[in-house]
Amino acid sequence: MKILSQSSSPMAARSREQCAELDAHDALATARELFSLPPGIIYLDGNSLGALPQVTASRVQDALERQWGAKLIASWNDAGWVDLPQRLGAKIAALVGAAADEVVVADSTSVNLFKLLSGALAQRPDRKVILSERGNFPTDLYIAQGVARQLGGNHRLRLVERHELANSLDSDVAVLLATEVDYRSGSRLDMAALTAAAHAAGALTIWDLAHSAGAFQVELNAARADFAVGCGYKYLNGGPGAPAFLFVARRHQQSFVQPLSGWFGHEQPFLFEPDYRPAPGIARALCGSPPILSMVALEAGVDTVRGALGGESMALLEAKAAALTSCFIELVAPLAEEYRLELITPREPAARGNQVSYAFGDGERAYALTQALIARGVVGDFRTPDIARFGFAPLYLRFVDVWDAVAHLRAVLVNREWDSARFRSRRAVT
Ligand SMILES: *Cc1c(COP(=O)(O)O)cnc(C)c1O
Question: Is pLDDT of 254 > 80?
């Protein structure tokens, strides 16, 4: 196991006062007030489930009582329900470097992966390989397996290590399916470079932005990305199980055909024609009726991100996230060395997302440690086999939260608080 030494770093001596000073000069400091956070909790799990924005309850209440309760079916037109997937997609597009008509909100990330992967493979009929990484998020792999099976057995999923993706692109690869930020290590791929390599090999790209959208600056079009999916309930704060989004680059929209040819993707759903004709643009990626209440909550989350930026670019969020994660890594370094926690997240800020993960070499201990921290109000999470994961949502976390979280971590380690039976029994969601 790698033993880390950071004691020579000048930042390792950072005090709580210095952290408070950073907060005092933080351009995003007031964004925290846009969220409803429970007192006494340091929430380092916004990468799994974003916090509740202040505006969400009243927006959902209005959608329930006024739009649905009082106005009933008229709200499909009058409250703009019918084009909410596109309107909300356009808002998300601005956060991920896409044009307004290239993103739409629909279904779950998993279902969107199915639609995009099926559609992308159909664009490369002479190629039979989906290239992805062995450690990719399981739903991405499961969906790819399902799509390959569905296509009758000629297609296959080729899995390599994350660092081998670029070198594994050959003339058999139809689609590169890559997740920009790895859910375990937090490492971030170079989207522009890998997309260019895929294109040079004649392959298309599908990027999973689950841990990217709303977290930092994503530049889909600058990277010439072909397709992408993203998650609504992580850094976009849309609430548990929020709808997801998908991106189809404008140059692919006319030829993109997806298999879930439901009526909301039809060119004119209310002509009720017997034959499917795909809508001309991104709307063809839709399937059935949008879940309006969930989309209203997601819109509140997206509006909260946009409002916090106040016209600034996502670079503002990215800079703060980099500073928060760097601060955490520096403060944990002496503990990591003493207690043999292996930092598995890249030290270079541009090479990571907004999370920091440590491998413990012992899954029981890593799980118990996250539970002991939760008992102290520091909420991170555990990922198999032995990883404690801490997410840093830059809109609602302060530098003093980072300092306090590390103080709790120190206490848990020094007092061996993790070494207790009550922290060992695993619940359904870790
Ligand atoms: C969270 C996450 C998902 C979630 O998929 P759902 O269908 O929304 O449950 C997908 N991919 C990655 C990489 C994720 O981190």
Answer: yes
Q: What is the pLDDT of residue 11?
A: 47
Q: Domain holding 398: CATH number?
A: 3.90.1150.10
* Residue of minimum CA distance from atom 5 in ligand 1: 109
Closest CA to 378 of 361, 347, 400, 363: 400
Range of the domain at 398: 6-27+313-423
Name the residue at shortest CA distance from atom 10 of ligand 1. Answer: 109
pLDDT tens-digit map of 277-295: 999 999 999 999 999 999 9
Kindly give the distance from the C-alpha atom of residue 83 to the centroid of ligand 1, in angstroms, as a whole number.
24
Q: What are phi and psi of 206, to 5 degrees?
A: -120, 120
Contact by Cβ (8 Å): 252, 225:
no
Distance 152 CA to ligand 1 centre (A): 26
Q: Does the pLDDT at position 298 exceed 80?
A: yes
Same domain for 95 and 244? yes
DSSP 8-class letter at 266: B
Query: What pLDDT sits at residue 13?
Result: 55
- 49, 110, 355: residue to mutate for ligand 1 pocket, most atoms within 8 A of CB: 110
The number of domains in the chain is: 2
CA atoms of 296 and 84, how far apart (whole Å): 8
Q: Is the pLDDT of residue 74 over 90?
A: yes
Measured CA to CA in angstroms, residue 404 lies from 107, 114, 332 at distances of 38, 42, 11
Question: Six-digit token pair at 332?
Answer: 């944990």
Which residue numbers are catalytic? 137, 208, 233-234, 389
For residue 250, pLDDT beyond 90: yes
Residue that the structure tokens 């890593």 belong to: 366
Structure tokens given for 176: 């590169």
| Residue 376 counted as domain residue | yes
Instruction: Give the binding-site residues of ligand 1, using a 6 Å CB cut-off.
Output: 108-110, 137, 139-140, 179, 183, 208, 210-211, 231, 244
Residue 36 falls within a domain, yes or no? Answer: no
**pTM score of the predicted model:** 0.96
| Residue of 115, 139, 206 with the most ligand 1 atoms within 8 Å of its CB, for mutation | 139
Instruction: Indicate which atom in ligand 1 lies nearest the CA of residue 183.
Output: 15
Return d(Cα 227, Cα 4) in angstroms, integer.
38
